[in-house]
TrEMBL record:
Keywords linked to the UniProt accession: Cell membrane, Membrane, Transmembrane, Transmembrane helix
Matching InterPro entries: LeuE-type (IPR001123)
Native source organism of the sequence: Photobacterium indicum
Transmembrane feature ranges: 6-27, 39-60, 117-138, 150-172, 192-209
Key word Transmembrane helix present: yes
Pfam families: LysE
Protein name: Lysine transporter LysE
The keyword Transmembrane belongs to this UniProt entry's keyword annotation: yes
GO CC term (a single one): plasma membrane
Length: 215
């Protein structure tokens, strides 16, 4: 469904993008470090879920319509920033005694999954990325429609992104395993995540969101 001649260039671009540190990498790495591999895996799955939704929106042309509306983008940015601030505040207010044991992290893992999904969907830069990035690799040599090609390209991007993030979880989770056994760290692990959410909120609220010109 895609022009295979552009695949090497596309894969090179995707790998380069994955290696650039960003808010998703920060959230996944800090989740793995603070709460262990299981929570990091769920955060990675949340990121992938949001990516799949954005891919579908891009393929259907919905995201392009939103991206052309400056008001919609600003509303998304404000909602995303407010959501991240709330998550940070909730983490800061959490009782250290509520920190789960490594073997009892299912509830926390589901919470981080949900937070990763929502924070990505409320990030206008993520939406614009799919609008601007995927169409560059749509080929007129393919018999598939542009929407079908963008769907395949987006799915490929999400699969590679998930693999990369799971590798990151494995690396960071192993490094943080000893920290999770440290009582002093465990009493502050919620505050670490709260600080991460505050950083992400500031990053989103302070950033300028461009409105792409789409013909």
């Amino acid at each position: 469904m895609i022009d295979l001649s552009i695949l090497p260039v596309y894969l090179t671009a995707v790998v380069a993008l994955l290696l650039i540190p960003g808010p998703d990498m920060l959230l996944i790495a800090s989740s793995s470090l603070s709460y262990g591999k299981k929570v990091g895996i769920f955060a990675s799955l949340g990121n992938a879920t949001a990516g799949l939704v954005l891919t579908l929106l891009a393929a259907m042309g919905v995201s392009a319509l939103i991206a052309m509306n400056p008001i919609a983008l600003q509303v998304l940015r404000l909602l995303g920033g407010a959501y991240l601030l709330k998550m940070g505040w909730d983490c800061m207010r959490t009782n250290p005694a509520d920190a789960p044991e490594i073997e009892q992290q299912t509830g926390l893992a589901k919470t981080l999954y949900r937070r990763a999904v929502i924070s990505n969907l409320l990030n206008p830069k993520a939406l614009i990325f799919f609008v601007l990035f995927l169409p560059q690799f749509v080929s007129t040599q393919s018999t598939a429609t542009s929407g079908e090609q963008m769907l395949v390209l987006g799915l490929l991007l999400n699969v590679l992104g998930l693999i990369f993030n799971l590798f990151l979880v494995s690396m960071v989770g192993s490094l943080g395993k000893s920290l999770l056994k440290n009582e002093k760290f465990r009493t502050n692990q919620h505050k670490v995540m709260g600080l991460v959410f505050f950083i992400l909120a500031i990053w989103l609220l302070a950033s300028q969101v461009p409105t792409p010109a789409i013909s």
